[in-house]
Design goal:
Number of helices: 17
Helix content: 25-40%
Shape: elongated
Strand content: 25-35%
Number of strands: 20
Radius of gyration: 30 Å
Length: 554
Amino acid sequence: MPSLFKRVTLTLSFLTFSTLALAQSKTDEPRKEQIDWNKPIAVASIASIDRVLDDIDYMFATIDKPEYPAMIKGFLAQYRNLEGIDKTRPLGAFVFLKEGISPQPEVVGYIPIKDLDALKQTLDEVGFFLNPVPDTKDRFTVALPNFSLHLKLAHDYAFVQIKSEALDRDFYNPDEFTRPLAEKYDIAASLLLKNVPEPMRMMAVDLASARIDQQLQQKPGESDIQFQSRKATTMLIFKQFQSVANDGAALTLGYELSKQNKKILLHFGIEAKPETDLTKQLEELSRKASQYSYLNAADSDVLGYTVFPLNKDIEQKMLLDVIEKSKADVPPVFLGTADNPGPAAKILKSAESTVRSGKLDAHVKLVQNGAEKLALIGALKLTDAASFKAGLQEFFDLMAQAEDTEGIKANVTEVEGVAIHQISPNGVKQNARDIFGENPVIFLGCSDDECWIAMGEPSCLELLQASITAAGKEGKQLKPGSPFLFSLKFTSVLPLAEQKNKDPEFVESAKVAFATGGDLMTFYPKITSNQVSLNLELGEGFIRLISLAIANRK
């Protein structure tokens, strides 16, 4: 899996802090490009006051507590329900660069105005007075107890700042910047890289490069392979940071509470400028996916799939060394000879080929298997799977002929051409028995392109058979741009949390919140031809849990 979507969080931190730092550095004013100082470099947006109030109504309706939104509305009624403000349009703040030799960031709030006279009356009733600034047009002040606010009206918005000179600019209509955010999110913030002067972005890259050079020294006790792995990862992050600094249009963090879909969405995305190298990367990535992206998160208590990249000089080398060293522990009868390789040699040959392919594509899931017990089902895509399949079959055939091999059974069943073998391990630890049952067994099988495994009570064999059958029917229905996913049904881990007994009140609240479902949490990327994003979705049970936490607050 290319590292772009694995590193975006660090990219956001690097770029945000570097940009703010550079905004205060003593540099010459950029000369090579025409800078529009009236365009913001960042925007924070609340979709609308009405939308927030609707969200609050929905949140507390999920736990049948209408008195809480009623309290909020009663509070607003004391302030004439904010008459004069347009409660249907976005409000928030912009960050501008103040023109000068040393550009400084400057925050300006924006509030949608519906009726200026009504707003003046609202402020008058609470003891704040909106006064026009003499000899100016559309400029006002509001005297507060400890300071005054300065307002400038434009585009049916009031732009607000403590310093009057901060409003000495020609503001664009906020709708141009807030509409794309308000259409998708209730609350959002966006760093508009396309409006950050190029010299500042390049200086951010230089600053990050200098800091990386300071940190890329081998640490005491760090092995060569650990150092090389850390160095390669760090440089990969830096290259992606550099790519985003060069070709990124915007970084966006968004939050949405959806009554229609009954879930919360948290989103972090990187948008690329058109016709750039970053766009080309995203176009390529948007066509790729894990072989297991057809899996539905709602069908499993826990699901994870990924395409994991293997760097030739780091991960591949390390895994190939492990495979080579493991041969010393394999009995010769299983290794065989060069002319007549044994089952272990055939299995290891496929493992080596898979590592050299440069990626690991696999999935693991936990599903219900009886009363409060789970079964593990997993699969790994193989290169030269025929060699692995032959070796696995020969291994179990040999073990079936040997003495003292109780618990090992070959060919217990077959599904879709996959022969399934069984191992009944001894000495299973108690924590594993708590999850998988008192007498868990392991089932193994290999198809023409992947190895399958199941662990749990013997009945998990049926679950394995169902998974193999489903893969045969759905394996080609992949979701483009889906390199990984992790999902969890929260109720599946509640028994473990209850055993720990660290927070009984939380466990009881969670039981109530998830009693009617909505406990699915899903973390996944989404890649299109011009954007890559990381997304966290939380079901309605989490909305109930948050509402209960507020309602039960002492």
